[in-house]
Structure formats: C-alpha cells, structure tokens
Amino acid sequence: MTMGEIGCFLSHYNIWERMVRLNLQEVLVLEDDIRFEPFFRRRAYGVLADARRIGGWDLIYFGRKRLQEEDEKWIDGSEYLVKAGYSYWTLGYVISLEGAKKLLREQPLGKLLPVDEYLPIMFDNHPNDSWASHFRDRTLNAWSAAPLLLYPTHYTGDEGYISDTEDSIRIDGTMPTIGASKGGSGMVNNDTRDGAQVPASEPKKGDKEQLPNSSTLLTDSGIGQGEHDLETKNRRSEL
After folding, report:
1. How many Å apart are CA 121 and CA 127, to the nearest integer?
2. CATH architecture of 3-158
C-alpha cells in the first residue's frame, strides 16, 4: 500500500467512528475530487426515498467504478437502485449507522487494505478469496444508484489529474510504477499488491474506462455505459 491509500482509509474510518460515537443514522460521505451530475439533489432524494421505503440497506454508492461484468440485479420495488457488484472508488456513498458498525467490527486497521477493496470484501463480492478470508462478517448490504449521481473530476491522463493515493510513496519507501494498476484489467489476483510488478501499460484505478471489452453488457438501464452517453441520457430524461 501507499501512504496515500492509508490516509484515504483513515479518512473514511474516522467518519465511521464518528457516526457511531454521535449515533448518526445516515451520513453522506463525499471525497474532494467529484463532479455532481445534473439535478443531483433532487435525484439523490429520490434514491434515498426508495431506499428508506424498501429498507435493509447498509451502504449506497452514489459514485463508483463498476468492475463486475455480470449484470447487477435491480432492487425489488426500486427504479433507482441495484445490488452493488465488485467496484472501485469511494467517490460518494451514503452509509447507515448499522453499516458503519459492521465496517468497524471487523477491526480493519489491524489488517489494512485500500478502502475501495475493503467495502466489496465486506459485502462479499470480491475476487480475492485470500484477502476476504481475513474478515468474518461479510454481510454489508451494499446497493448503488443507477444511473450514478457522481463522477470524478479527472481521469488518468486528463490535464490536472493528480492521485494522492496511487502516486504517493509506498510504505516500504519505494514509488509505485507509473501507470501501474491495482487490479490490472479490473480484477484483482493474489499477486497484485503483494510485491508483483504490474506492466506499465495497464490502467490505474483512476482510469475512465469501466468493464473493458464489455460495452454492451447492459442496455436499458444505462449502467456500465461510457460517461458521455450516460450524461446525455440523464440530461434528456431530466429535460
């Protein structure tokens, strides 16, 4: 891990701790490099109204990088929510008090890994069984807004793109390989982050592309489409 990844995890961890300490029922967590979709507030209220009516959720992604190639199932009774699959990024999410308690109970600071790997492990949808085996209660109920309500302000290669997590120094004092990926083509294996060198041509977590070679996986829902197409669809529906 890099020092930036550790710092990022601690930022989220401190929010979960504060939620429990102050008995906060729901909290919206936003990172500082996000871009809001049009009519964000109105659409966020719609997503939350659905979630509260249905009940049983612990975390709802508002922004993420979707990596799981299988279709994500719609939540019964909802027009705006799907069951979250393996995802990167913690751009923005709503977490419940029970969800925060679940994340804290596993004492993740004693077996630290990047926060956007920890969350999929905790809702038991992670490709690395070796990592997941260190966490017993993987019962976080994670949903996602569909379509998403948040995107990054910059992607890898954009002018002004900076990653305080991936491009910071590692805990062993070395620097990450430029352009290296945390999960290669989007799926993590047992070698990744365990000292193996990743080819510099592979993407980083900050890359724009999602679901490589799978652009037609989902049609009507708009999930997994390119950002431009998704924005166009959102704006047309709002207008």
Report:
1. 9
2. Alpha-Beta Complex (3.90)
pLDDT digits (tens, 9 = 90+) for 178-226: 544 444 333 443 333 333 333 444 457 777 655 544 333 333 334 344 4
* 76, two tokens: 């019964």
Domain boundaries defined on the chain: 3-158
